[in-house]
Amino acid sequence: xxxxxxxxxxxxxxxxxxxxxxxxxxxxxxxxxxxxxxxxxxxxxxxxxxxxxxxxxxxxxxxxxxxxxxxxxxxxxxxxxxxxxxxxxxxxxxxxxxxxxxxxxxxxxxxxxxxxxxxxxxxxxxxxxxxxxxxxxxxxxxxxxxxxxxxxxxxxxxxxxxxxxxxxxxxxxxxxxxxxxxxxxxxxxxxxxxx
Length: 195
Fold this sequence. Notes:
The chain contains eleven helices and no strands. By secondary structure, it is an all-alpha fold.
């Protein structure tokens, strides 16, 4: 057997392309395997890269998880901002927000970082657009009350993250069935609009 034939051909990527591939694979593994799937060796193997390559780009499992959370959160908030710009109904916006946080492990990754006290880096100052501020600004334009807008964003974010982490358990304790659980974002949107 030829030694060279058993080796995989090395693929050269730009640093940006390598990081993007690593984060894509990490997101897939988070969705399929949960937080246990977000380790350097598993992500490297699934991406067809060496352990050293992933370490080179991220330094540690924690740093890779933070980078993934930043990407996922940026995508989530960009979607919310686009929906606000298009004047989508609040019920539609909240439904998409709650689904995005609960699918793919986003909320659980956020919880892990919060427990690790690493959330200060969730959206660093150099992140483009400062999307939370943009969302607060968009709501302030509608309501005219910046404090009210900040409280709404906090309420919705806390509810969405909370449900993505333990919503099924909490719903069971409260006696809410799956249909009622699915209608929660619309219910919340109605109550927010009435205040």
